[in-house]
Structure prediction request, 754 residues.
Amino acid sequence: MIGLQYGITSLVFLLFGFSLMMLMRWQLAFPGQPLPLIGKFFGEANMPGGVMLPEFYNELGAMHGTIMVFLGIVPLSVGAFGNYIVPLQIGAPDMAFPRLNMASYLAYFIGGVVMLASFFVPGGAANSGWTSYAPLSDIASVGQTWWLIGMVFLITSSLLGAVNFIATIFQLRAPGLSFMRLPFFVWAQLVTSFLLLLAFPPLEAAGVMQLMDRLAHTSFFLPSGLAVSGQPLSVSGGGSVLLWQHLFWFLAHPEVYVLILPAMGIVAEIIANNTRKPLWGYRSMVYALIFLGFMSFIVWAHHMFLTGMGTAISAFFQATTMIISIPSVIILTAFFISLWGGSIRFNIPMLFALAFLPMFGIGGLTGLPLGLSSSDIYLHDTYYVIGHFHYIVAPGTIFALFAGIYYWFPKITGRKMNEVLGHVHFWPSLVCMNLIFMPMMIQGLAGVPRRLYDGGAEYTFTQSTIHLNVLMSYAAWIMAIFQIPFIINIVWSLFKKEKIKTDNPWEATTLEWATPTPPPHGNFVKAPVVYRGPYEYSLPGATKDFTPQHQQTINP
Amino acid sequence: MSEIIPYTVEHRADTGLYNAKMGVWLFLASEVMLFGALFSSYILLRVGAIQWPHGWTLLNVPLATFNTFLLMTSSVSMVMAWVSLKLNDFKKFKLYQGITILLALAFLGVKSIEYRGEFHEQMFPQTNTFLAIYFTLTGLHALHILGGIVVNSYNWGLGSRMWTADPQRFTNRVEVAGIYWHFVDFVWIFLFPILYLS
Prediction:
């Protein structure tokens, strides 16, 4: 139930965050031209005469990042899918702490409302980027204070959730469900929860310190001798701007894996189910996952090569960064080998899961030049970085989340989503995603700087690639149009008469399909016992090509 | 709702824990990271500073020593409260738990006297970076003390009605609150020498 609340709220936030980006794309494609039709609704303070002010562009940029990451994807992949699927897959009646779960959702909701409300305070919402780098954020308008307060709520929500997930997975596994029999999705959620549990508190500490800077006028992140608009800032000074960056990225790098691991978990379930084969190398995937979780805590400063930390530190962090790419490659390779020789069912969830593989591959491989400090210095402040991480998060994670929605929709509602509308949703989205993010890589290699509100139009060196902005913007708007079939599909499938005939429409092996549909209070009619691994498809000697985990003998 | 969830009271064999105890240890892991980040910031700021005052030149060490004593005593009485429940002695529990709460309140009282003295001498968070981290760390710690007082008072007052209905579960609750309380004391054991004595 909480899972569904999380799901609906986060989908709304995803759409909202996407809308902010569509506004920005107008300004990037047609800098300084008034936005037709809706431009006049944003008020004289933001868009006088429908023309976007630089300050408003900065607000949109900061809030797009914040909303997509902290209010959209994490709550959807962890809060919604984790909450709904994990207890089912481990054969538990509920999460270990139902009240904590409710509190977690409430904190998330309040955090979201605070973030939205910040658009209406004087000076608008936070405008120092989603990273809120000091000293800019220390002296920014009051929206930044709202951002910090909103973040404290969101962090609290994630911490409560993480405690709950780990306790649930350790304590409430069904009899016989040993760790090496856990579905890969549960493993992914477990590692993700540890990342949230241990990486978020430093950001909370940093948030408290920035709040002190802004409200009690301390100088944690303000060095001595700072001048604003020609006036020396009257603070005690002696702070460190790099301290903020260290604390921020100590969270935000593990956060990257929080964004991607649940997606990998979803893809694993769908690939095993639709190739009708066991996942190839399940154990090595699990070990890779755990190793990746550990490593993600010691790579954060590869976001800071430009700050001049010194070559020794840079060398350390680029070494760890190269090392962390290995477990991701192991997992992705295992997915590809799992496809080999399978008789694949190309249904909508599988299409999204298959699209995830090359998209995440592109995103991951383009990250390698950023992990090496010498090439990163050239690429870091360009659109290349934007292209790189969006490939991972947008056609990567978001596609996996779509796959998960199509895959588990029958369990939640008792009805399958429409295939035709699914195709109408999938193919244009795939094309548009690439038309948006591939040109960013080209622009970035040409040196076009990111964060500029006119896309860098005033520079001569951008002229050869700046026209790509128009293409990217049209692709973004067209992609928005092709999300409409998805929304229609959800609503229409929810109310259609035709129900699925069995509790296990995909003929899957994991425990969530052993419950009635939709799962009642307490989930299982009879407490399940587990006899086998998670992906026993096409067992030799079995009459059916799938053998559920709770089935004692191969042929009942 | 919670009746159907297993291991709310009894231990699970392979982890050796009931759910809430696992939960509180996980929560404390995140607290270690929270205070760890602040301590790391303290080190980074101090190493980077041109000059850094010794804590004892600015702060009131005798009062803080007394406060350390109060908190350590409250840790002992917290254990005694839990042991009393284990020994089925509810009256003793009420006594020791009450002492724990009073000691915590006394700690906050002394702390506020300290703060007032510092404000009186024109020492504010914005005065310098040492005072900034001092007020942030001790303020955050005081909030944790306050949280402990709220939980312990609930277990002492309204919440203690659970003793008659489900004594095992109530004892667990007190144990979990105790684990948290020891952690808060433990943080102070680090705060005191780092801020006052170095």
